[in-house]
Amino acid sequence: MRSFDRTEQGDTESGVEASARLEEFTQALWTALVPTLGSCCSIQGELVRANRRLLNEQLQNGLYNYYDHEQQGTADSFGQNNYGRLLLFLLDTLIANRGDALSSEDVGYFERFRELAMIDWKNRPRRLALEPRFLSDLMSTEERRQYGSLCMESYGFDVEDLYDHAQRCIANWCLANPELIDMEGRPVTEGGLSSLVPLIQQFENRGL
User: Fold this and answer.
1) Three-state SS for 190?
2) pLDDT recorded at residue 201
3) What backbone phi and psi angles, to 5 degrees, belong to 73?
4) Bridge partner residues of 190 (DSSP)
5) What is the mean pLDDT of the chain?
6) Theoretical Cys-Cys bridge with 10: which of 15, 18, 140, 193, CB 3.0 to 4.6 Å?
7) How far is CA 6 from CA 27, 133, 147, 194, in A?
8) Cβ distance 116 to 154 under 8 Å?
């Protein structure tokens, strides 16, 4: 089965959908690997689950549950709550690039997104504190400069864009790593499968 290139990647913000082939493969992975409740045993399944859960959190809650409203702003608290752990698992797994599944450009994207996520986490409390004054036009010149700088530093932390990019790269990661493994790299069975080879062959047999 051929890998997924950039022309098949969606763009949620612009309303551009991923290719039908990519959407179908992603859904097949979800159906085969992701349980109704709880996390997955396999890295492959957990990548698919993490990506969709993060997108749903953005679309449904504006990342309300991603931000720990008591702990945000400190570097050592980054990635410590549930959605933060999902984000770091997703990014760190793709950055590690097991089986050379991704291009250097794709790995660079996830490395940069990780940096932006940390910056956004650290800057958000101060940015939120300044925002009401910005909206009411009561800012001093220095506050306006600081607010603009904080916004620019976090620019690019876009979970919808991450989902689109990660969807394609997760599919390619699974193609390059079809044998199901757990977080320690040990063989594991998920949903009765120990390998994605049969699923991949179904797509190959259909010429996809």
Assistant:
1) strand
2) 97
3) 105, -15
4) 193
5) 89
6) 18
7) 19, 41, 35, 29
8) yes
